[in-house]
Amino acid sequence: MGISDVAASGFGAGADDYERGRPSYPDDAVAWLVSRLGIDASSTVVDLAAGTGKLTRLLARTGAQLVAVEPVSAMREKLVDTCPSAAVVEGTAEAMGVPDRSADAVTVAQAFHWFDAEPALAEIARVLRPGGSLGIVFNERDVRVPWVAELSKLIRWDERERWRVPYTVEVDWAEVLAARGPQFEPADRYDTTYRQPMEVETLVARVLSTSYVAVLPADDRARLADRVRAVAEPLGPSFELPYVTVAYAARRR
Q1: Tens of pLDDT, residues 123-133
Q2: Which domains occur in the chain, in start order?
Q3: Whole-number CA gyration radius for the chain
Q4: Using CA atoms, how far apart are residues 124 and 105, in angstroms rounded to an integer?
Q5: Mean of the pLDDT values across residues 130-150?
Q6: Residue 164 — pLDDT band, cuts 50, 70, 90?
Q7: Alpha helices, DSSP H only, in the chain?
Q8: CB-based contact 14:209 (threshold 8 Å)
Q9: Is 49 helix (H, G, I), strand (E, B) or coil?
Q10: Looking at the whole model, is its pTM more than 0.85?
Q11: Using an 8 Å Cβ cutoff, are 69 and 91 in contact?
């Protein structure tokens, strides 16, 4: 099973902007996942839809054996540089190309919304050893902050369905797991916040890394970049982009 055209084209075109502009993950959320998933130096962890390795490199600190699965070639090229200790594999959530019962944990950062949930969860269960666990984490821009709300409106985040981006901050992934993943026990949830250090051009890269923005014509992207600069200008040369972060952990039955 392949990935959507928007994801393939957008992330392929925007890999550099993705690495430059996308946030990391808060230390407390990563520590919670590591604890709940039982990750240590003896573990094998599959980081699924690993992108440029934003989460992969944080998990590397545990000493675990890492397998980073990523379908987009431009992202895999970045992964090799950002997390050289990981084995980088071409694959999708529905067809990972990883052996049966070979992983103690599977992690998914900022990507589960792209998956076909039922076959993806069946594939994750196939890869996990008995008693292994799935971890999911998302950063969401905190639109309670006025300038962040203005930014989201500028990039037409509320109109994302027209770009066929199956994404919504309202999804409770614990409910998705309960409804679509009978192979998993009920998920635990952890809520926290994160503040990403920013400069104006980093924010521009953050916006341009959005999948449906990355595939726009060059002139449209340039105009959007200028409008993002106008939003950021009153914030000064350095500022922070606030996020709310949510993590989930579910053990395989």
Answers
A1: 999 999 999 99
A2: 5-141+168-196+244-251 (3.40.50.150)
A3: 18
A4: 9
A5: 95
A6: very low
A7: 5-13, 15-21, 27-37, 56-59, 73-82, 117-127, 146-154, 173-180, 200-208, 211-214, 218-232
A8: yes
A9: coil
A10: yes
A11: yes
Rounded to the nearest 10 degrees, the angle between the axes of helix 200-208 and helix 218-232 is 140
Residue 162 structure tokens? 């027209």
Burial profile 20-29: b = 16 or more Cβ within 10 angstroms, e = fewer: bbbbebbeeb
Beta bridge partners of 128: 103
User: pLDDT of 29-46, one tens digit each?
Assistant: 999 999 999 999 999 999
Beta bridge partners of 159: none
Token pair of 172 as six digits: 């409770």
First to last CA, the chain: 25
For 187, the token pair is: 């998920």
Return the H-helix or E-strand segment holding 69: strand 65-69
8 A C-beta contact, residue 229 and residue 204 = yes
Return the residue matching tokens 């109109």. 159
